[in-house]
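One thing: can you check what follows?
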Amino acid sequence: MSTKNKKAAGGNGGAPKQTRQQSHDSQDYSSFKTVLFYCMLIVFLPVLTFFVLKGFVLDQFLDISEVKVNIASAVGAVVALHVALGLYIYRAYFGAPGSKASKTD
């Protein structure tokens, strides 16, 4: 029997390797989505918090000076940044539910 016939008779000898590769690709894509989400949260949440506090909350409803509005908005943005970083660190440390690290050889 030639090697060509052996491969044809062997069925799907490459299927487990293909499935394993798809599994790794799926895990990589899931990790990429998670990191991208937290990066966007860390970048955009403080900026949005600053402008929402400044433009809609503090200027509209409170009668305080412009400097105090800017300071309060900046403090709110720093708090929002720390919350986003805390969420990322919590997720990185404790991991997602059901995502146990498993070693496959």
Observations:
- The two ends are 31 Å apart (CA to CA).
- The CA atoms of residues 20 and 105 lie 10 Å apart.
- The helical segments are 3-9, 15-61, 66-94.
